[in-house]
TrEMBL record:
Signal peptide as annotated in the record: none
Catalytic activity of the protein: adenosine(37) in tRNA + dimethylallyl diphosphate = N(6)-dimethylallyladenosine(37) in tRNA + diphosphate
Cofactor: Mg(2+)
Identification of the protein by name: tRNA dimethylallyltransferase
Function: Catalyzes the transfer of a dimethylallyl group onto the adenine at position 37 in tRNAs that read codons beginning with uridine, leading to the formation of N6-(dimethylallyl)adenosine (i(6)A).
GO biological process: tRNA modification
Region (Interaction with substrate tRNA): 34-37
Xref: InterPro entries: Dimethylallyltransferase, IPT, P-loop_NTPase
Quaternary state and interactors: Monomer.
């Protein structure tokens, strides 16, 4: 049986270092599931691995797209599984790393556990229903997912609201998500998390934003200003600087907002990971002994 080790944790906790340490130890390659690091124009603001880190171990799905490319989570799931299976032809173990929760879930479980309703989407759709009637919802669904439109009760507005909401959230047809059983994964998954006291994590995040600014985040964001309407750029570190360029905020305030929004994102990640009972944790700033204990524990899991 092949093994996928998934390294997870909140933003700024040091996942890249651990993933590289593990990849070196197991003489293998790394698959990224950080959805922001897919875009080659956003290296600084997404804290993509450095040239040295990329040279140390072969990484996949880093800087492989342009911000102008359309790419959905469903497409990623397909591409990542294909790459993992290719890698399993020459390696017994592959490392997955990244803090994009749904993207990790897509790889290790599949996406047919549908997301919760999105309040904003539901509100928008309710407004459309109220102002333009159920016909407008039918029209939207027919355009987005003709296959589901063909089988759904098109007079049941709740069904229409749910399907469109899911399509908007996942960028995938609802019909694909409910018809395919993607639960089967023919490899073991071992999830390794890194944890630190909340204050220490927030301190790291704040410092990391300062380092990004020193490395040229302002110039990077400026070069992407023309694309600010694209989904890829609707993300922490860029939206705040676009407000600075627009004259809405001054620079110090924009930087403090990047820090605040990064901490908020970390908090959401922690909440998500707390729900899982299958994550083995390593403390931030782990020693060689901690790492040796971890690899020993991993081997024990392989035996099981």
């Amino acid at each position: 049986m092949k093994n996928l080790i998934s390294v997870i944790g909140p933003t700024g906790i040091g996942k890249t270092r651990l993933a590289i340490d593990l990849a070196k130890y197991f003489s293998t390659e790394i698959i990224s599931c950080d959805s922001r690091q897919f875009f080659k124009e956003m290296k600084i603001g997404t804290a993509a691995p450095s040239e040295e880190e990329l040279a140390a171990i072969l990484h996949h799905f880093i800087g492989n797209l342009s911000v102008e490319d359309y790419y959905s989570i469903g497409q990623y799931e397909e591409d990542a599984l294909k790459k993992i299976n290719e890698l399993f032809e020459k390696h017994d173990t592959v490392i997955l790393v990244g803090g994009s929760m749904m993207y990790e879930k897509a790889v290790i479980e599949g996406l047919n556990e549908l997301p919760e309703a999105n309040a904003e989407n539901q509100e928008k759709l309710q407004d459309i229903l109220d102002s333009d009637g159920i016909e407008k919802l039918q029209e939207i669904l027919k355009m987005l997912d003709p296959e589901y439109y063909a089988v759904v009760d098109i007079h049941n507005h709740r069904r229409l609201l749910r399907a469109i909401d899911i399509i908007w959230q996942t960028d995938r047809k609802y019909s694909e998500q409910i018809s395919v059983d993607q639960g089967s994964r023919d490899f073991n998954v071992i999830r390794i998390g890194i944890e630190a006291p909340r204050e220490e994590l927030y301190d790291r995040i704040n410092r990391r934003v300062d380092v990004m600014m020193e490395k040229g985040l302002l110039e990077e964001a400026k070069s992407l200003e023309e694309f600010k309407g694209l989904t890829a750029l609707n993300t922490v570190g860029y939206t705040e600087l676009f407000k600075y360029f627009d004259g809405e905020w001054d620079l110090d305030f924009a930087i403090s907002e990047i820090k605040k929004n990064s901490r908020r994102y970390a908090k959401r990640q922690l909440t998500w990971y707390r729900k899982a009972d299958n994550i083995h944790y390593l403390q931030l700033g782990y020693s060689q002994k901690d790492f040796d204990d971890l690899t020993q524990w991993i081997y024990e899991q392989f035996q099981k």
